[in-house]
Amino acid sequence: MxxxxxxKDAVGAVHSIHLFRENVELMGLQGGSVESVSxxxxxxxxxxxxxxxxxxxxEKERASTTAWLDLLNQIxxxxxxxxxxxxxxxxxxxxxxxxxxxxxxxxxxxVETDAERAQLMYDKYLNPDGTVKDEYQGTEAGEWVxxxxxxxxxxxxxxxxxxx
Length: 164
Known about the structure:
By secondary structure, the protein is an all-alpha fold. The protein contains 6 helices and no strands. It has a domain at 68-163. It is rod-shaped and about 90 Å long.
């Protein structure tokens, strides 16, 4: 159904009247002295300014929150990328699985935590400077333990940042 121009003009006029009434109420122009109109106008102006300032503050807060969430997501993505080769090869509990594969049963049972197991593997397969010991050069164990040694500081730092 198409509306005629007269109908559209009438709707526009009703809308204009509605906006005028809102402005009259906002500005305090319903009766009273010039002084009360001036006071109401100042109060309405301050109220409008307060609303605008509050909206700006909320927008900054939303932008800050969004930026923070983007940063946290980026950190998590980098942790996932660092851990992916280990998880693909050894599963989710990769430090424990590596320790089971690369340490003797006696060595494995001598410690309790993943951090201790990782340190035991570092001590066994790596020199103090982080390079693979000569006797383990070119071995699966030497290569994986070196990769673990090189990536774990970044993973640990990322997890620390995510904990906040």
